[in-house]
Amino acid sequence: MSNSTTKSPAPGQLIPDQPDFPVLWDNPQDAKLTWITVPLYKTPIPPLIYAFAGAFLVGGNAGFEQTGLPFQLRVERINTYVYMGMVPKGAPPEVVMKAMGMLNRAAPSVFKKMMGRMGAGMSKQQEAALNPIIARMESYWYDELLPEIKQHIAYFESSDLRGMSLNQMRAHLAEALERVERMGALHGVVLPMLFAMSQFEELYCELFEGATTLDALRLTQGFDNKTVEGDRALWRLSRSVLTIPEVREILANQPAGEVIPALKKSTAGQQFLVELNTWLAQYGQRLNSVFALSGPSWIEDPTPAIQILQAYVAIPERRPEMEPAALAAEREQAVAEARRKLAGYPQPVRDHFETLLKAAQIATIVHEDHNFWIDQRLFYHVRRLIIAFGERLAQVGTLETADEIFYLTPDELQNGRDDSLVKIVQQHKAEMERFSRVAPPQMLGTAPAFEMTDGGSMVRALFKGEMNPANSGNDELNTARGLPGSSGVVRGTARLIHSLAEADKLQPGDVLIAIATEPPWTPLFATACAVVTDGGGVLSHSAVVAREYRIPAVVGTGNATSTFKDGQLIEVDGDAGVVRLVVEENEYEPALAG
Amino acid sequence: MLASYAWLLRKMSMNLLWLGDPRSFDPALVGGKAANLSRLARMHQHVPDGFFLPAALMDAAHPLDLRDEIDSAISDLMACHRLPDLVTAVRSSAVDEDGAAASFAGQHETYLNISGPDAIVEAVTHCWESARSERALEYRRRQGLSADHLQLAVFVQQLVAADAAAVAFSANPVTGDRNEIVINASWGLGESIVGGTVTPDTFFVRKPDLAITRRLVADKQRMTVSAPRGTHEVDVPRFLRKEACLNDEQVIELAKLALTLEASMGHPVDVEAAYAAGKLYLLQCRPITTLNG
Predict the structure, then answer these.
(1) Of A116, A238, A504, B173, which residue is most buried, by most CB within 10 angstroms?
(2) Domains and CATH numbers, chain A
């Protein structure tokens, strides 16, 4: 990347434009904010996907509002890339910000003290907003949020896409955008969810000397959730494959793309297809990545599911479907042990512990279930309506192919003259083509005047989730250092997975290495012996699911994907948060002999 | 069941004496402090119940020979207060020596959080043995006390799992103001307040109308909690450090108790108390001797 060599901009100063990435601000004030790229979406985003992704992310502000976070999120598509800006709420005027930046440089210790006090104040505010929610975490999710989430999904399920006129399609698209924004607000449940897990983890480590974060989170593991439920159902499907020789033969020997046509040829195969389709109907309403709206869902193209089935069929012995019981038993033992230790503590301590434990346990379920309902199902339905709309436009000749619809903004779709849309599509395509060859700057606008040392307990919680600022000062040879994500030490072959399309590379016993693992990937965890990610913290999706699969995980390394190569033998230490290249003893021999 | 009358219902033991039993008001049998507590228990229902192994008994028998007595006292105590299990404090005191220095020489021993007959007998045995240690006997000889006849009593008392411990002064011990009640309170058992390892919350109550005039809520860093077979001091979790450990009703309830005790003693008092599961327990009451004016 070109930006690895550029000097980082001075704090509080305007960041100069990268020559191949000139920025024209619609509103010049925006240049005074700090804009950062979203690590997972470092490719150009077509306008229509941006419209839905942006509406969803901005919808999340309702969540920030509710939780007393001191900033608001803005999302902009700049030169085809998605950037996020944090707008400080009720922020001191620029002069004060500048003065704070100066104080930071002149008297760092005074500044640190000041920031510490601000952090404590923010914690108090965030806790005041969030404690009532986490005290009723179970009903908050199941009674207050989930029914509405299901209503939105039901709206999409019941809409008759085939029967709509073009005008009805346009109206439906507008309605969908509003509902996606509302779902973004409902997705705000991730804030109290992470907060509950983080607060519990912090209290546990405070109460029990020498306890680690992973010790704390052991008390929240082993509950059923939609992720493990779907993965286990797929695993059970693979067990029934083992008992049907014809089907087993096909899955073992055919390439993934040939499996379904081959199955259709035999009665046993057809019977199995019915089972597979039942699974897909329930769990296949997912795309390969959250905002990957231009790619097929698993229902449209079940190849990812077939590949995972094939990997499962190759594992005759492991029984992850049996492990929830072991996980739950381990959890209950840890809970009992903690309660025994706390028996002699003052009542308020025991009460607070129980409140946070319960909230963190529910939150761990919500951590996965919200993905199932919102991140996966919602965007599955959004894709369906976009494709149906695109197909209709292609039918009437407004577009050449249905897929071209992704290169139009909602506004262009609502108001553009039909005969000009193809031209607009070409312009957007050309722009994306041009910027796909550019490495987008990490940061645009104005460099932050100072670093927030403590944004309060909610910000700490966010950092433990997907927003963990990746470890940067990491230059040890053949080693990646991150955070413990899930206990255990294991050796396996490194396998770099950038997208689900590469999932078939992963062989049983391999180490899955990724920038971050996304919710649809979890069935891979049954095949992998360990998970390593560049981003994310101990409460990220990768870490939470790795714990449910009882495989070691190291998260937030910052450089695992660039440190290791496919096929290398590596050792993952999930307790220490370290990944190392294993140097085989016989590799030393020539050196010793010489 | 009121501790003060419970002893009447129990089988009369020739050897053990119960808290509140007038026979245990005798300092020569149970020690001065314990005798006071026994009187207190007779008058106030808040004192946690317990029984004494009087000095004469301890002199005549090894604790292991008293196993049956102790066992039945424990089951009486549990039955009487409907306790599913009994956690106790076992304390010894030399009945002829009440000086502060004595605690360093086996004259006063305290074992907290002792649970079950075996552990209680073991703690009593420790008291018995430490009083007979060479160091203890040497101390007694130097004090001019008898080294042949041991004057040691042991008190086994229900230990209150305190959520907060408090010391109430029925007169301000610093200013000498007799119209002001001062209450110090902190999280957990009382050891951290008494031992001075924590800055407690302080509440000031005006005597005539029992109005709380000032609340100084401290940053309470440490607390003593009970652990299996003892206690230990731990950090107070951050969420609780700056929370007041008594609410206003509790402050006033405690102030009233201090007033009652002052009236019955006829002198300003300092009262050790604890709250457990919302209930007030009276642990100790002494006259304030340092008061000027």
Answers:
(1) A238
(2) 464-586 (3.50.30.10)
